[in-house]
Amino acid sequence: MTNSLRRGEPLMMFPRTLWTRIARLQLPAMLSLLVPGCLWAQSGSPESARQAACERSRNKMAARATGEDFRRAVVNVQSCSPDEAAEALANAWNSAPQDTAALRLLGEVGGRVADRRVLAAALQVAGNTGGSLQERLAAFRTLAAYAVPGTVLLYHDLDRTNLPGVGYVMIGSNEHQDVIQGSQRLGKAEIGQILDTFRRLGRSDPNTTVKAVAAHLAERLATSS
Amino acid sequence: MYRFDSSRELDLQYALERIAHQPGDARSLRVIQRLEGPATLIEAERKWAGNVLTTLASTCALTSAVTNACDNTVTASPFSGGSAVGGSFTSQSNTSASQTISVTFAKAVRSVTVTIYDADFGGNQAVATGGSSATFSFDNQPGNGGVVETQTLVASGAGITAVQLIPAPADYVAYDLSWEPNDDIKVECLPNAVTRGQQVTCTASPKDPAASLTVTDWRFDSPDLTGPVTEQSTSLTWAGTAVASGTVTVQGSVNGTTASGKGNIVVSARSWSASSGDTVSYSETELGQQQDILPDHPTRYSNLGNHAALADAYLPSNGYTQISSGPNREVLFFTKVPVQAISQISINRIAMAVASDFYNLQGTKPKNQPGSPLPYCVRADVPAFLPKAINHEGLGSPPPSGSHAAVFRAELNQRTPLAVEGVVALRDITELLTKASAAAQPAISTARQIAADQDNGGTVAPIPVSCNFRFFTP
Questions:
Q1: Cα gap B54→B25, rounded to integer Å
Q2: For the whole model, what pTM was predicted?
Q3: Which of B64, B106, B352, B356 is deepest in the core (most CB within 10 A)?
Q4: Residue A50's pLDDT is what?
């Protein structure tokens, strides 16, 4: 939905210069500051509902909620400030959920909040040879999206053995490549660190599935980044 | 330095000559020294002579200690490239007396042609194993290059397998050597150009229709395969499904003499048509509320919908096969386009529902947006946006025309079949899959790019709108 659905930009069809200028103003935020007590900043307003949802999400993630509670919390933590979201996501990796749906969401949402705290947590999980396969592959989602923004991974046939990487993972890209920048931004060094990690795991990880997937990602992401 | 048997008067003549063994070959020069007189040469040391390299035009020629040419491996020992008197090789780098050179052929040949340079003394010979021998003439005049003589050794029985180049005692000589393969077998593969997956039959026959042919081995080589396909067989035909272009070589004998022959298989691409449906394995899925990552409180337009374009090679069930016989025996190839693609679509139905927080964030009455030609949207615009988002991302079967999903699907169907059409592998399914994946990537990448929004360099038009939504601000 770019042009129409693009990061932080209004949806319209008129000259791009004006459209860009307006986008930079981030009008809702400006208006909420300039017009105290405006409708959506008041208690019981939609904006306060967002704030409440953000708090709820952070609390549930911190409390290691399970099932649907955790899944919606991970998704809705994107409505929090970038710092709050990054902190919550990084902490979530320290006690990663067990169910694969929650892990998938944690990996994907992590990839949309670019922050070194989340990166460090994801790298730790990805490289932990004692961790579960699902957990490590979920961390790969975050790392892949950092290396090439918009990257999305679809795993399949994980119960089969001795396949090449392409036999386990399909690589795609989100049309709307949203990235929320945290306060601890990622630079080229971090991208290099991610690719090095994939290469290293692709060479020598004891888990053959992790090894195959990592090698495949290292090759494909290196040509795209 | 020369040493003669007696003190007599001698004439020494020098000349600079251009060497031209073959028409058009004028790249080398040589110094000719001519000695004339009654004295007999006892010893010669010719340090003034530098190496002169010559190159023969013949492709079946000895050019190094181990020469791979004309479907044969020929070994010469000792071997030293170039010489002081012309020719392409000698037995050693200096100009002292030559040694016997043994030349061996991995496959017997029909004839061997030897040219000797500067044969000064009697006794220079070429002796073939499995063929005739030759003795070279001489002029008893060292260093004058006067005798340059070519002789051909002809095979008898199973063909020539080795040649000894024996120099005359104390003589320094150089040689050119070439051979004629025993290619008395004709190989014809029909049809001349075969569409990938169709049958091809290669037939061996003697070039001389009156000769008798016995076949012992068939072999197929292709740049698309990691190794040759070989088969020991006495059959005069080698037939099977053809999927890789390459060369067919047959070994055998003609009238009892070892012989070989070559033929070519030329494979052309199949045509893949999407007229009756997808060429790739395409599916579309909408990620439900438990799977999508669109937040309930959207902070930007992209939180309202998304299209993820996934595609890569795969092994389609009943879509690849291994050939059981013929020149491409054990070669794997695809019978279906080995690309699967998924349009993963997310629609933020929670945010775009009536009475959602996003709905309530919008005003109830139209209001101008400062600095924008478009006003703010009202609440009724929220649910009205839902079908537009669905249409833009491409949710539906088939996906709505012009949507991300529809363009992605159409481009993949058009581009990937040709990209992966020629992928083959010898016995190794993993190699087949990885080769297909690598071959498909450029087409997949292009399909994704074309299926992007116009603002991102693609072709998908933006959603037409008449107002701007208010979004949540974290």
A1: 9
A2: 0.74
A3: B352
A4: 85
